[in-house]
Amino acid sequence: MTITMIDYGIGNYRSVQKAIEAVDGRSDLTADPDVIANADKLVLIGVGAFGATMDALRARNQEQAIHHAVAKGTPLLGICVGMQVLLEDSDEFGFHTGLGLIPGHVRKFPDNPLLNVPHIGWNQLEHDGTSPILRDVAPNDYAYFVHSFCCHPAAETDTIAHTDYGWRYTSVIGRDNIYGIQFHAEKSQHVGLQILRNYLAM
Asked: Rounded CA gap, 121 and 144, in Å?
């Protein structure tokens, strides 16, 4: 089965494609809304700001295509800002609405003079091992993060994993056929590859 990567003009696509290939997967990169709407599996990579990502998706008529695909049961994986835009809104550089696929909001890390923001580097994933997206990922395994804003799902049941960086925040989300990871799978070595392998197996 081929993973369709959504090309909205922003993102480090090749490194994620190489990670997918490393776990014996296949991927295609497309900006075509019709292809997105009829894909077998979707990956939405996010680099940069929430608002710029949503503007780019809307300019290419991809938002409606993503909603169409998800509504008919197509699995969707959001990575980094691609996870954040799954929620309803963000206050990064003003107020911006997201895809609204998972109820909740995106907010900046709380002020803490002892912590550097953005959060850059390796940190642990706290989870109970029951979600298929984290199968064979050990509790407290490390992943690689680069972000200043965090997801706040409205329902605790949509949080699959937490990470502690001065305070405990949601680092993996999931609802039905929708998943999001705040960290970079392509930079997270065996953990990132295992998550991509799990997503391929769904």
From this structure: 5
